[in-house]
From TrEMBL:
<keyword id="KW-0489">Methyltransferase</keyword>
<keyword id="KW-0808">Transferase</keyword>
<dbReference type="Pfam" id="PF08241">
    <property type="entry name" value="Methyltransf_11"/>
</dbReference>
<protein>
    <submittedName>
        <fullName>Methyltransferase family protein</fullName>
    </submittedName>
</protein>
<dbReference type="InterPro" id="IPR029063">
    <property type="entry name" value="SAM-dependent_MTases_sf"/>
</dbReference>
<dbReference type="InterPro" id="IPR013216">
    <property type="entry name" value="Methyltransf_11"/>
</dbReference>
<dbReference type="GO" id="GO:0008757">
    <property type="term" value="F:S-adenosylmethionine-dependent methyltransferase activity"/>
</dbReference>
<dbReference type="GO" id="GO:0032259">
    <property type="term" value="P:methylation"/>
</dbReference>
<feature type="domain" description="Methyltransferase type 11">
    <location>
        <begin position="55"/>
        <end position="145"/>
    </location>
</feature>
Length: 260
């Protein structure tokens, strides 16, 4: 993946941190994904414990770091890319509870462990190794949060470019809970149009019905010409009760124990 950190850092400084103006005058999709405040919609609703510690795997240009730092006691940002961490530090320089670590997950250690560990677009192969390491770093009552694209997502079947690392719902559930489904519990959520710029969040307890997504499917990365009528196809999968299978992306909350 192309690292935008050097150019983003220069732009951020040129605009004196005015991200809204920066995006208005530099309307690039990759800048939008890196800087838009819409990114925070993914977990803005989540009730983090204020005295908790959180490990963010992947700096992601600080897109969600500010949200975490406002919600928990201490945030550790882990990334092997020094430039990405540098831009994140600049972007969130007013926050004093963020610790930046230039390392990869496999080599990282922590004696205390974390209450939350988050993969927001940063889960990659080898999946099993990353998941095993993350669970080792998680406190017994901690939560593992993952956002990832669905390789069966309708947007990709319609012609949108798929991300390098993506999993189906079944693959993700098995990765989190094991092939027998008895390794902890997981809650699934479905950000629309996707986890990178989420506008609406569905869950297994609140799924869209026929007509709910007919005209609410716009995404910035859809190709000009789609392979099929995406609105009609979403109507079909919703009516056939298959939205969970073909949603564009997933947000999951995993823990070792069932929630009360």
């Amino acid at each position: 993946m192309n690292d935008l950190s050097p150019e983003l850092k220069k732009l951020y400084q040129n605009y004196n941190g005015d991200i809204k103006k920066l995006l208005q005058e530099n309307p690039r999709l990759d800048y939008l994904y890196a800087l838009s405040e819409i990114r925070e919609n993914l977990l803005d609703w989540f009730e983090f414990k204020p005295d908790a510690t959180l490990l963010q795997v992947g700096s992601d240009y600080g897109a969600l770091t500010g949200l975490y730092s406002r919600r928990v006691k201490a945030v550790t940002v882990l990334d092997p890319c020094h430039n990405n961490l540098s831009f994140n530090r600049l972007r969130n320089q007013k926050q004093n509870n963020i610790h930046y670590v230039n390392n990869d997950l496999n080599s990282f250690t922590s004696e205390e462990g974390f209450d939350y560990i988050v993969f927001a677009g940063s889960l990659c192969e080898p999946y099993q190794d990353m998941m095993r390491k993350a669970k080792e770093l998680l406190k017994p009552e901690g939560m593992l949060i993952t956002a990832i694209s669905n390789r069966l997502g309708l947007k990709y079947q319609a012609g949108a470019k798929a991300e390098q690392f993506c999993l189906s719902r079944t693959e993700l559930k098995e990765l989190l809970c094991g092939s027998e489904g008895n390794e902890g519990t997981v809650q699934f959520y479905y950000p629309m149009p996707d986890y990178r710029l989420p506008v609406t969040l569905y869950s297994d307890g609140y799924l869209p019905g026929k007509g709910d997504l007919t005209h609410a499917i716009l995404a910035y990365d859809y190709p000009k010409y789609l392979r099929f009528d995406l609105g009609k196809m979403f109507d079909e999968v919703c009516e056939g009760k298959q939205f969970e299978t073909f949603a564009n992306s997933f947000l999951t909350i995993w823990s070792r124990h069932e929630e009360n």
